[in-house]
Write a structure and sequence with these properties.
Rna Polymerase Sigma Factor, Chain: A, Nuclear Transport Factor 2, Chain: A, eight-stranded mixed β-sheet, globular, SnoaL-like, sigma factor, RNA_pol_sigma_r2, RNA_pol_sigma70_r2, RNA polymerase sigma-70 factor (ECF subfamily)
Length: about 325
């Protein structure tokens, strides 16, 4: 059947081409997201990939599978995007109060969360023999953030080798590099990732996640800084892309939450969603005039053991990806 579809597609049958590439669409989008850190940019890269594949189908020599051929195109489209220009400036809604002194300024201000609903129905294809990361870890915000700090070639090599599990020879063929160049790039990428401590293999192990998230929601909606930091690891991060301020550790987080508590109305509702296979919520404030609820952002947390090691607030621009309405009726 794939051979028949390929032949029909080569003859100009768009429906056959769609049937040929559709089984790979979701995983290609996830790959582009890992490369680019932005769902919007990933969708743009995916569309460019599929258009390029349609135009270049006559040049497909069948030396690899259609899936691998599509990964070659997608990876190179992402590399072109990364090399062509710097990231677009991302406008940010300023904080309602002067920000406390941050632990550092963030470097990945374009980061967006990835909706769990888009991970449903992915083909049940195990990574190749060379993979080092499990699927849950490789979609986590911590992993995707760390990957964004790698140079483009190292980023592509790491994802192809350690996430998708392609062999060094296959990766070299996909990227048009020598095996020696692939191995060198991989060694440098792994060293950087190890330094970023992105290994989240202990996440959820032995954790009553529901009890922890319930306690978090209770503390967060009550703006109880003491209760919030009591749930956090000693090296937890609080982030707010595209704002550059990042806070690490309970003391810095406490200063941040305390500064905001006196200037922001209490959150009236937290609507559960899923992002990057992590707990997430839409945050809603009550309008003092209408009594209705309006969205102020999307919050994603990371869990390590029995504590929270990451709290990331995203602006309302990502809400449509999660099916979150801008307003809710009075409750």
């Amino acid at each position: 059947m794939p051979d028949e579809l390929l032949q029909r597609a080569r003859e100009g049958d768009r429906e056959a081409f769609a049937a040929l590439v559709e089984p790979h669409r979701r995983e290609l989008q996830v790959h582009c997201y890992r490369m680019l850190g932005s769902l919007q940019d990933a969708e743009d890269a995916l569309q460019e990939t599929l258009l390029s594949a349609w135009i270049g189908l006559s040049g497909f020599e069948e030396r690899s599978s259609v899936r691998t051929w599509l990964y070659r195109i997608a990876t190179n489209r992402c590399l072109n995007a990364l090399r062509s220009s710097s990231r677009r400036p991302v406008p940010a809604v300023p904080l309602p109060v002067p920000a406390p002194e941050p632990s550092r300024s963030g470097e990945v201000l374009w980061l967006q969360p990835y909706p769990d609903v888009l991970l449903e129905g992915l083909p049940d294809q195990l990574p190749g023999p060379e993979a080092r990361y499990e699927s849950r870890e490789a979609i986590s915000l911590a992993f995707v953030t760390a990957v964004q700090l790698l140079p483009p070639n190292q980023r592509a090599v790491l994802l192809l080798r350690d996430v998708l599990g392609y062999r060094a020879s296959e990766t070299a063929e996909l990227l048009g590099l020598t095996e020696a160049a692939v191995n060198s790039a991989l060694a440098r990428a792994r060293a950087t990732m190890d330094a970023k401590a992105t290994d989240r293999s202990s996440v959820h192990a032995g954790t009553d996640e529901r009890a922890l998230t319930d306690r978090f929601v209770e503390a967060f909606t009550a703006q109880d800084a003491d209760a919030l930091v009591a749930l956090m690891t000693s090296d937890a991060w609080v982030r707010m892309p595209p704002l550059p301020f990042e806070y690490q550790g309970p003391a810095a987080a406490h200063r941040f939450f305390t500064a905001l508590a006196g200037h922001r109305r209490q959150i009236a509702a937290m609507v559960p969603v899923g992002a990057n296979l992590q707990p997430a919520w839409g945050e809603y404030l009550r309008d003092p005039v209408t009594g209705g609820l309006h969205l102020i952002g999307v919050l994603v947390i990371g869990i390590a053991g029995d504590r929270i090691d990451e709290i990331t607030h995203f602006e309302t621009s990502v809400a449509p990806y999660f099916g979150l309405p801008r307003t809710l009726a009075e409750t």
